[in-house]
Amino acid sequence: MTKQEFVRALEAELEKPEGSLDPDQALTDVEGWDSLAVLLFISLSDAKFGVILSGDQIAGAKTVNDLLLLLGDRLEP
């Protein structure tokens, strides 16, 4: 799965229009980014890659790209 595909999957989980999330976008600017969205991200990461992330790891993320970096090399460029 590429980074762009993962972002599109995250948009779908968050019920956002395709193309609405940008990797450089601050999470504070993402409408609806809340505790439920964090749980959706954790679930998506686990389902797609078997990656278990903690709330502390996600709390350190400031942008959409920071979330992608948490997945490491599991995403194709």
The major beta sheet can be summarized as: none
Main structural class: mainly alpha
Number of DSSP strand runs: 0
What's the CATH H-level homologous superfamily? Answer: ACP-like
Give the helix level as a range of percent: 40-55%
Given the structure, what is the number of helices?
4
Architecture per CATH nomenclature, i.e. the level-2 architecture: Orthogonal Bundle
Element-level helix/strand string: HHHH
Report the β-strand fraction as a percent range. under 5%
Overall pLDDT score: 92
The CATH topology is given as: Non-ribosomal Peptide Synthetase Peptidyl Carrier Protein, Chain A
Q: How many structural domains can be distinguished in the coordinates?
A: 1
Overall spatial form: globular
The top level CATH class name? Mainly Alpha
Specify Rg, calculated over alpha carbons. 11 Å
Overall description:
The chain has helices spanning 3-13, 35-49, 55-59, 64-70. With 77 residues, it is an all-alpha fold. The termini are close together.
What is the topology?
Layout: H1 3-13, H2 35-49, H3 55-59, H4 64-70
Keywords:
77 residues; mainly alpha; Non-ribosomal Peptide Synthetase Peptidyl Carrier Protein, Chain A; globular
Concise account of the structure shown:
By secondary structure, this protein is an all-alpha fold. Helices cover 49% and strands 0% of the residues.
